[in-house]
Design brief:
4-stranded parallel beta sheet, 122 residues, alpha/beta, thiosulfate-cyanide sulfurtransferase activity, Rhodanese-like_dom
């Protein structure tokens, strides 16, 4: 049976906890946290990103997160807390579900860049 984007987002939002910008900032201060911006490069270039965030476009996430991939990014470590964001929260929700499916356990969606960029230094 085919699945719609709405159904995919519902499943992602059920699997990945949504956190506030304040909670995200506290997790970052606590350490051992990876912040991932899943927006495309032109979006990041136009609007900036959270300081210390790794930009991995949604389409490359699987390749960067999988240690067996030749494109693996060493910043991805399953022992870390992972906080994701995008422009409005949809891509970061889907990305979070994907990471959970890949075995990452501590994954959170803070939503859109504009929703929390003021809570932490850009």
């Amino acid at each position: 049976m085919a699945i719609s984007v709405k159904q995919m987002l519902e499943a992602a939002n059920a699997a990945v906890p949504k956190i506030t910008s304040e909670q995200a900032a506290e997790m970052i201060r606590s350490g051992n946290t990876l912040v991932v911006d899943v927006r495309d490069a032109p979006e990041v270039a136009a609007g900036g990103k959270i300081a210390g965030a790794v930009n991995v476009s949604r389409g490359m996430l699987e390749f960067r997160a999988d240690p067996e991939s030749p494109y693996h990014d060493k910043a991805f470590d399953k022992t870390k807390t992972v906080i994701l964001y995008c422009a409005s929260g949809g891509r970061s929700a889907l990305a979070g579900k994907l990471l959970k499916d890949m075995g990452y356990e501590k994954v959170y969606n803070v939503g859109g860049f504009k929703d929390w960029s003021g809570a932490v230094e850009k």
